[in-house]
Each structure stands twice: as structure tokens, then as C-alpha cells.
Amino acid sequence: MVNNMYYGVSYYPEHKTKEELTHDMNLLKESGINTVRMGEFAWCRFEPIEGEYYFEWLDEVVEELGKCGIKTIVCTPTACPPAWLVEKHPDLLYMDNRGIRRPFGGRRHYCYNHKAYREYSRRIAEEIGKHYGQNPYVAGFQLDNEPAQEGTGRCTCPVCREKFRNWLMVKYKTIEAFNQRSGGIFWSQEYNSFQQINPPVNTIEVGAMQSINAFYENPTIRLEFERFSSDSQIEYQDIQTEILRAYTALPITTNGTGLATNSIDYYKSTKALSNYAFDYYPGLRNQAVDSFPYAFARGVKEGAPFWVLEFMSGGGHRLSGSGRLQPNPGALKQAVMQSFAHGADMMLHFQFRSFPIGAEQLNYAIVDLDGVPRRRYFEMKDTAQELKQLEKLGAAEFRNQAAICFDYDTHWALRIKPVNDPVYHYLNYCTAFYQRLSEAGVNADVISLEQNFNKYKLLILPSAFLLDKKYRKKLKDYVKHGGILIATFLTSVKNEDNVGYTETLPAGLTDLFGVSVEEVEPVFDRNKTSVRLTTKAGYKDSADSMWSELLAATEDKTALFMASYLEDYKTGAGVFSKNAYGEGFAYYLGTELDKETMRDFLTEVCTEHGLFKNPITAKGAGEGLEVVHRTYEGKDLYYIFNFSGKELKIDCPGCYRDCVSKEKITDSCVIERSGYRVLLTE
């Protein structure tokens, strides 16, 4: 982690009159922030006529702010191609799964595979790189804006159809191989050539409409189109990355939206980027801020700090027509500090001043339409001061001993063929494990299947539905050499082609877990069944949920059943198991139990295997307390966040120094509602 923190806002000087600009610049300079992000939607100002580039309108702002210590993130404006470009190349318009072209008049109305559009994007990125690449007041570059947002991540235009066919041909080599691996014989879907293959009619694009109801397509083609679309977005992005690198050594990134909202594989998309960055709009009114996206952000590009390029600012209107609640007093600062605690070194609110114009008019911001600084502005000002005070702590290390695997192929496969939808969602299930570990005092990272497992004592593998054979060996090696693995129902059901394994489930892993899956079914209200979990503290009765797998011991009978069914024909059938394998242990969970029971189970596993647990607790906090542990200069550093909605008395055994108030803390302290503490061991 680097030893600084960039904090600020998104700002849009191209919208302002001279008087508004003067007014806003004064407020920005007085606020104490050190970063602004500008330019992402201003192609028509950068290049109002083809080949004629104008930067003066932005230069004045960059220079004035820069001289006052506020640096700029300059964005390439390719999310909004101008009217002249669309008029000249109407075939570059995005085509959705229904074959409908997206007309000029919104944003992201382009095909990312279109050759001409890629060339125009390269040109504008090059001009921006030439102009700002060495500017001392620029801190970095953002490419485009929110790739694939608002249903623009799976273009099916003629360009994309042809490119998809070629992509399949490169991967499978022969149509015979594709037919065999995809199971094309089903419903007579074998092809004579790749030219006969089209993008799927159905889509998992957020907010999209299916054009044909009850049209069931080949799962392999559907998954391959997700992979192809992700690869295409990355390829388009990297054209701009490469050209900017010729003109600057400054960081280059783009802003994702959620871990899986837009089906871009961020593990792959960040490889050519300086760091991972994303936009995050959590609720800040009487609720905890989920830190799972931050844990993912730390792991998606190992060794690089992450940025939050758009973050919640205030309440009011929203693009979709609903609204966002105002933050509780103190919650804005608390949320920024939480991001910093989890490893962010850039945090920019969207936005500085509400828009009076356009589709996002009346939107949430730090300052309202009238430009009068109020509560949110002054809280941002306080936050900027506190970040300066804590900036050196950005160098603190994470030494988490637990990790959760999140996998894009599994996410896509379970969206294409859902399991007990909407009760079970893969991303939510991964998040639930993270939160339960946190409540048990164990901080976790989020990693890919490609990353190094051996850094961690405990690895959690939630529903690894699609599991390539190479990862089976990797998991076995991890446990054999002393690792602790917890896997769950829906593990190793399909291969990399999105085709079901014909082996006994969990396919290829029955020796690792010492169990086989005998029967499976979704769990609805009408078939919930009692389960008894046995721990060292005794037993707890619960009921299954989401999914049920009946487990049987393999022939060697090495597995210990920790939970079994108590009723109906399932009575006595195992559902949680533990198996010694080499120097480690492998647990298999055949269902989901209630929150408290799952938390107790994880607590016991972590205690038994000696994982570090945060010593800081609070009675009555429920799920409203988060403790983030890091180490700074050999000392334990704890960020403690109170999301409970009330004042909390915190038990913190030992002696600490509060890094904000400088007071000495011994054994306990109080944290106000929407407050936090930063404690360093004495």
C-alpha cells in the first residue's frame, strides 16, 4: 500500500457558466480535498468537429486547482460518442439481444468491437495522452466510464456476430470439436461450420428484456458468449491503455460497477491496468456498509492499491427515477474511513454539485443545485482533514489468514442456469460467508481460483459450480500441505465447457472430502427439513435452506459427519462433513443453515485451526460492528466501525492509542452512532 490518500469529487466544468465555475472553484479549494475527476462525458467539447481538439476549457480548471494542491484524474470520454461520429458511422451503434440498435441520445451507445469506433477512441485517447500525460497537476487517467453499464456489455451487431464466430474458431479449432464439447447433439444443434453459430437470444445482462419467452439455448454457447463479451470489452479498453502508456507513467485504470454487475472478468481486465477501480453507492442511513467489495478490490490485482472513483455523497433523486436517502450525520465520513481502512488510496464522491440538466438532473451530490455549502460539504471537509492526519497508516499491511474464492465462470454459469432463483444467488452467498467470518472476528480476503492459496490457513469455496479439472488438483495440494478448505453444495458440478460432469459429485473431489453426494434438491418453504449440527460446545438444531445435498461416506469411511438430517426420509443422512486429507482438513457443507448456526460453525472451525481473531467486541452490537485488522510498524492496528444505529461500548483488551483523538485507551472505549475508532497497540 502506498503512503498517501487521494480524496475528492467528480466535477463537470463543461456544464458551468463562468460565474458558477468561479463559485465552485472557491468551494473546492476551501474544502481541503486533493483530487477531482473530470472529462468522462465531454467528447463533444474535446473534439467538437472531427480532428479538431480543444483542451483550453479543461486546462484552466486543471491548472487553477493544481496550483492549490488539487490534482486531476483525467478521463477519456469514449462512453459518449458525439453526434457527428454517430452520423458518420451509424453502424457503430450498439445492438442488444433483441436486435434493437441503441440510438444516439443516451450514453454507451456504441459497439466496442467496431473497427472505426476503436480507431476514433484510440485517437482521442492519444490526444489526451499527449496533452496531459506529463502535466504536473494530473494524478492519473480513467478510461471510458463504467464499461458495460446499463445493458451495453453484450453487443450482437453483425460485427460482433462475426467476431464471436472467429473467437470460437480460434478456441475450438474445428466445428467437430465444438459440437462434441458443447453437446450439440441435444435438440439437433450440431453445426456444419462456425458461420452457423449466432450469439444467444437470451441474456443475463442486467435490466435486459428477453425477446422470446421459454427459449432454452445451449449452455455452452451462452457461457462462451459471456466470456467473449468480457474479452471484447477488455480488448477495447486495452487499446486506450496502450496508447496512453506511450505518453505517461501515471496510473491508468477504469471504473467498474460492482463485482459482477456487468459480467466483465475483472481479474483479467485489470492485468494491463495500473490498479483496479470501481464505483460504489452503498446506503448510508441506518445500515452497515458491506465491505465485501473492498476485500475483492484488494485481491483482484494483487500488490496494487485500489481506487473508488465514484462514491455515495448524499440523498435525493436518482437516474432511474427512484431516490437515495440522505446519510446519517457522520456516516459519510465513516464510510470514507471504512474504505481507507480496507486499502483504498483514492476515494472520490459523485459528485460535487447536483446537475440541473440532462438525464441525471437533480442527482445526489455534496453540494445542492443552489451551490450553498451545507452538512455534506462540511462533513467532507472534516473527512479531508482526518485523512491527512491518518495518511501514513495507508502503509499498514493486511495479514488475513482466510480467503474466499469468487469465480466469474461460476457466476455466469449460475446466472445462465439459476439454482433456486431468487433464494440463491452466488454473489450473495459469497458475501454471506465474508460477513459471517467478520462477525466471528476473522477478516478475509477475496481471491480468484488462479491466485496463491498457500498464503492462507483457511480457504472457503462457495458453490464452485463450474470447476476446471486443473483446480481440483490445486485444491487437493492445498489441503494435503496443511490447508483448511470449506466447500459447499454445488461444488464441481460442471466442467469448463458448462457441461455437467458424469462423475459422482463433487466430481473428482470425493477423495478430498471423503463423501459423495447421493441426492440433491432445492429447498423451498414446503420442504424445509430439520438439521442437527454437532460442535464441541454441544449441538444446535436448525433447518436447511437454499439447496440440499444428502452426503454419504466414501468406502474408506474417513469423513466425520458434523451435521445430519433429523426428519422425513432424510433422517440420519449426513449434510456437513469433515475429512482429514494429508496434513490438512476438508469440510463439505451440503446445505445452508440459519445465520447464527453458520456463524457458530465458522467460529469453531477458525478456533480449532488457530486462525487469528480480532479481540475487539461489543455487547448488543449484533451485525452493527466491523473491525478491520492491519499491522503498522510491527503493531496491531484496528479500525472499528459502529453501524449499530446507537452508541456502543467497545471491549478492547489491552492498551491502545487512538490515532485520531490521541487519547490512551485501556480495555474499553465508547463509539458514537455512525462513528469509528482507529486504535494502534501501545
Structural class label: alpha/beta
| Form type | globular
Contiguous low-pLDDT stretches (5 residues minimum) are none
CATH homologous superfamily assignment of the largest domain: Glycosidases
Beta-strand portion reads: 15-25%
Strands side by side in the biggest sheet: 5-4-3-2-1-11-8-7-6
Report the strand count: 27
Quote the average pLDDT: 96
CATH fold field value of the largest domain: TIM Barrel
User: How many helical elements?
Assistant: 17
What distance separates the N and C termini? 23 Å
CATH architecture of the largest domain: Alpha-Beta Barrel
Largest sheet, in brief, is: 9 strands, parallel
Instruction: Assign the CATH class of the largest domain.
Output: Alpha Beta
CA radius of gyration is 26 Å
Q: How helix-rich are the residues, as a percent range?
A: 25-40%
Count structural domains.
Answer: 4
Summarize the structure in words.
It catalyses: Hydrolysis of terminal non-reducing beta-D-galactose residues in beta-D-galactosides. Its EC number is 3.2.1.23. One of its GO terms (molecular function) is beta-galactosidase activity. This protein is an alpha/beta fold and 682 residues long. Helix content is 29%, strand content 22%. It has 17 helices and 27 strands. The strands form five sheets. Strands 5-4-3-2-1-11-8-7-6 form a nine-stranded parallel β-sheet.
